Amino acid sequence: YRLLVVNGPNINMLGVREPKIYGRKTYADLVRLCRTAAREAGFAECRCFQSNHEGDLVDVIQAAYGEFDGIVINPAAYTHTSVALLDALKSVALPTIEVHISKVDEREDFRQVSYVRAACFETIVGMGLDGYRKAIKDMAACLHEHKG
Ligand code: DQA
């Protein structure tokens, strides 16, 4: 199986941005973690993509159609604003897991809504970067269960 990991705005600032909330690990560390977790879960391919631009995130989700079997996505701030990302995920209709590094459920009111959640079969919050490892494992289990 082929896995696409998508990260939204400011995730490239991991390690620098608000370390009390997001930790000291960098985006490069996150990419390494995802690649290792994907290999261990049996994925043949793991592509990691990060952008600060909503339209670029829509483009990469659309391009996943026919090219990837599952998507793990942290839309970051666009989680709370983007109907376009929701529609893109619904358009390609690939199994998708939403990940948030921080405990969004314990933070500001404006973080309590997720537009993308309706297109995801699972949401993981507040596990730090380990949330991606869990998402990748759970995606592998889902694909093996439904596609064999
Ligand atoms: C985040 C939570 C969002 O509210 C925030 O805008 C982010 C990161 C998280 O991973 O905890 O940029 O998605």
UniProtKB/TrEMBL annotation:
Marked site (Transition state stabilizer) residue numbers: R17
Organism domain of life: Bacteria
Catalytic residues, chain numbering: Y22, H100
Residues given in the record as substrate binding sites: N74, H80, D87, I101, S102, R111
Purpose: Catalyzes a trans-dehydration via an enolate intermediate.
Annotated family: Belongs to the type-II 3-dehydroquinase family.
Oligomer and partners: Homododecamer.
Annotated protein name in UniProt: 3-dehydroquinate dehydratase
Protein's organism: Tractidigestivibacter montrealensis
Gene (UniProt): aroQ
